[in-house]
Amino acid sequence: MLHELFTPSVQHSLDLVGIFVFAISGALLAVRKNFDVFGIAVLAEVTALGGGLFRDLIIGAVPPAAFSDLGYFITPLLAAVLVFFLHPEVERTQRAVNVFDAAGLGLFCVTGTTKAYDYGLGLTSSAALGLATAVGGGVLRDVLANEVPSLLRWDRDLYAVPAIVGATIVALCIRFDILNAATSGFAVVAAFLLRLAAMHYHWRAPRAWNRRSAAAEE
Amino acid sequence: MLHELFTPSVQHSLDLVGIFVFAISGALLAVRKNFDVFGIAVLAEVTALGGGLFRDLIIGAVPPAAFSDLGYFITPLLAAVLVFFLHPEVERTQRAVNVFDAAGLGLFCVTGTTKAYDYGLGLTSSAALGLATAVGGGVLRDVLANEVPSLLRWDRDLYAVPAIVGATIVALCIRFDILNAATSGFAVVAAFLLRLAAMHYHWRAPRAWNRRSAAAEE
Amino acid sequence: MLHELFTPSVQHSLDLVGIFVFAISGALLAVRKNFDVFGIAVLAEVTALGGGLFRDLIIGAVPPAAFSDLGYFITPLLAAVLVFFLHPEVERTQRAVNVFDAAGLGLFCVTGTTKAYDYGLGLTSSAALGLATAVGGGVLRDVLANEVPSLLRWDRDLYAVPAIVGATIVALCIRFDILNAATSGFAVVAAFLLRLAAMHYHWRAPRAWNRRSAAAEE
Which of B121, B139, B205 sits opposite A67 (nearest CB)? Predict the structure, then answer.
């Protein structure tokens, strides 16, 4: 029952939108790294599907959705083709891409948490796995591109916190038995708006205390 | 039945040859990176077994073949020992290593696709997983060595395309119900020859369009 | 039966100690890499739980212990908080951290080997997986921090060999049917002392033969 937060076709369409925008971010990084057309496709696939793949391996949902639903596999390829031919135009719409990426982040942290709970994980673990679903693809993207994951860098706007908030709202809704289309929609929107605000106001997470003095010692 | 493309012992021997040459490439990179003897062994194991390990986790074949067949585990160690003592000689035979590596590529894309289909994946997913089987170990090798995966770089001869062709031939043969030792042998040889030709003629995949102008803007 | 090397509560406490010290090493690297508070938490979690997660995926123990036992998940967060506020003090106790890390190494290679054997793997594979349990988290930590894994570098004191020795002792004890709390405790202590000695005497593994002449050629 938990599965059916939205009608299946609505859920599936939302998934594909999230996958598409995540794939765009992977393909754009591949272009910046000067990869060839195949590298663009690989980075698009990994960014879009990596988080969900990790979640499915952990909860034992094999074969993962990424390999059992053809749409999940083909959507990133479409994003790769688009970026291959039109990347200057796509980069110029970076703001729009960022907005969609924020939507994907909100969506995936909610569906990831729900799916993990459906497979029997506890509430805390489910929320952690929802977070991993939302941010895992981006981490894999950066590892393959041989860069420090932007998720971990202090000089990037908050990315994990919105996903943590979204996943936590879902976990609390499950805890109090009020998870439905409305409340999970609220969780998606909360994470989405928080990420937009973080980008707009350049919110950042603190580094370790005494960092400055420690750096001076070096 | 699909499993039995070749007699089991022939299949197993071919697997070990592919694992051995992949392990050689991993061990040689470890020597170039100045790793110690243990780093050489780890990189040999990861390069040789990483692709198959990923495939087995995805299709739910646990424990993976890499951990249930002792020969799969020991073969990379033999390659590591060989490279440890004789690496200048092995590097001098780089051309021969490349030819064997091409054979491993052809073999693994075919057996990977077949095994994935046997475990119930669709044709497209099976071909994708066949490709991942063939190239996954090399990607893991480069990630562990902290280098940009050579699979993704535009300045390397085509590596993925031969594996894609081999996997696609197998998928088409399954689709039209004509997969047997002859047709899958043909797929192996096609991928093998294509990779040899790519190395000989330095075929490369294109980068994103307008790359030059985009680079000039930077 | 093999599971019950120690009483469950003793075993669990030892696990948490190992997880805690591994998490400290991850959090300290995150501080050195200038990551934000979230990056510190992620690196603490990955370092502490990565090896066991890999083992559990390979043997098909899903969901992995890291996601089914809340203590496993929360302990690294405590380590992250400690390092966040007190990292200069923690770094000053680096020697103590190293001693605990050696204890974690000894413990995890033993419990990893035992658990893998319990799940039906062969003796060699079990020992290999015990080694992977002990060192896997550190490798993932370095990959995420975009550094060459210190496990693979020749200029670091022996780290893998103590774990190999501990795992091998366990495998031999299983082989000769003498595995019990005493013998597995002996394996833990052997790996622990070997690692301490390697740090004290700066034991290192050899690089490939002829390395110097090969380097001169470059």
Answer: B121
Rounded Cα–Cα distance for residues C215 and C218 (Å):
5
- Answer yes or no: are the C-beta atoms of C133 and C174 closer than 8 Å: no
- The CA distance from C182 to the nearest CA of chain A, in Å, is 34
Q: Given this model, what pLDDT does residue B178 score?
A: 93
- Cα–Cα distance list, C3 to C11, C108, C177 (Å): 10, 13, 14
Query: How far is residue C64's CA from residue C53's CA, in Å, rounded to a whole number?
Result: 6
Residues whose CB is less than 8 angstroms from the CB of residue B208 and which lie 6 or more positions away in sequence, other chains included = A31, A37, A40, A83, A84, A85, A87, B214
Q: Which residues pair with A43 in a beta bridge?
A: none
Mean pLDDT along residues A35-51: 94
Classify C16 in phi/psi space as left (phi over 0), alpha (psi -120 to 50) or beta: alpha
The amino acid present at C81, given as its one-letter code, is V
Beta bridge mates, C153: B35
Closest C-chain CA to B37: C207
Give this prediction's pTM.
Answer: 0.91
> Do the Cβ atoms of B67 and C129 come within 8 Å?
yes
Q: Looking up tokens 């479409």, which residue turns up? A: A78
CA angle C66, C69, C70 (to 5 degrees): 100
Our CA-based measurement puts residue A37 at a distance from the nearest CA of chain B, in whole angstroms, of 5
